[in-house]
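for the writeup, i need someone to sanity check this before i put it in the appendix. the sequnce is what the collaborator sent (i think, or maybe the updated version? ugh). structure was predicted straight from it, no edits. if anything looks off just tell me and ill rerun, i have time this weekend
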Amino acid sequence: MPCARLFIATCLCLVPMACASYKPAPISPAKNAEAIQARSLANPRLQTFIAAAQASDPRPATAEIPAADHFWDLTTLTLAALYYHPNLDLARARLAEARAGVVTAGQIPNPSLSFEELSYRPSVSGYSAWTIAPVINFLIETFGKRRSRTREAQALTDAAHADLMTASWQVRGDVRDGLMNLWAAQHRLALVQQRLDVQEQLLSLLEHRVAVGAASALDLARERTNRNQISIAVRDAERDGVLARTRLAEAIGIPLAALDGIDFSFAAFDQPEQPGADLSTGELRRTALVKRSDVQALLAQYAAAESALALQIANQYPNITLSAGYGYDSGQHKYMLMPAADLPVFNHNQGRIAEALAGRDAAAARFTGLQTQVIDAVDGATAEYRAATRTLASADALLADEQDRERRTARWFQAGEADRPTLLTAQLERIAAEQSRFDALAQQRQALGAVEDALQHPFYGPAMPASSDTNPRVDSAPHS
């Protein structure tokens, strides 16, 4: 009887050991909103994160760590987005959940404690009146089920990690587009403001000529209409700049006010890496079809489906339960070992196997569909980029013609063979050509961004900064 008591006490003591404790973490909408509104590019933890990310990058640094009075370029703004953007927080949480699933899948099933009998009967023989028969049941999984389950969980972890990289690329693309739109808006505003200044000069000259009878009122009305249209274009360009700043702030994950007083570097858009002539059939295309993060994610999901099928096939065969027990019955000691197993009489897990087989087929179809989409995306983006490049070349030629015409008109003006309105008109035509040329340049840069997204190869900036597996606002040290 003392042995039985000791056995029961030991089992009861083992139950609460190594148990996790619940710690509530309520969310306050008001405080959470305040924290978001307080986000800033001057955050010291963000500066530390950027410094650590650039220090861990084996490539040569291309920019200093920006402070309040420094320029922010595409790389540093992307790092700020990796630090702040909520989509990455969600992807990191899913990765942590998948990693916890690996731990769960690899755990050995806990034994269970049961009692064959636990009773008390008055005894007249002088022995204890208790009858006790505790049994510990050990589940033994057969045919590598835990191994298949662990492989499935590890494959899902690989998929979650690839999904994090996909989210990072999407955030990077949004930051690039936002910064590019701001670059384009500022250039367009400068050009249209220059055009408005020249138009005002021309209008002033015509007003003076009309006053002295040297020009017609019809010419004056036409130029005044042009001035009004250009003035509206200035307001539109200013609005586009505001929208671009709003989109950039959204892409980073910060409030719009956090961009106040920030100077931006648009150097990434001046001389980007140019794709090779064999873009449609070259190494970058082949790499994208194999190495793109979303391709890797679906490949890992297919591996998980394979392991899930292997697990269900193994589940055809029963596990074994070993029940080791001890019995004490009115002074009699008994030791027991009772094996048990399920009997596959009514089914052999055919339904689960069929489901897993269909799941694997579906994963294969998704993978093939994604590769098809990648091919179409690369082909479409490449064709658009080449067309935009040809348009830019035409715009360059037209601008060169207008610049040559302006230079000739300036020489005629200096020689007294042309008046100032003629010179101003030539300047307006040259500025209009510059606007058309910049529109073509912006379209070509946007098309190159689409190629970058399709290939997941950086043409703007040195490379895609590495994303942190853990929330950098909690742990500011980046991980690969």
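DSSP finds eleven helices and six strands in the chain. The first helix runs from residue 2 to 14.
thx in advance!!
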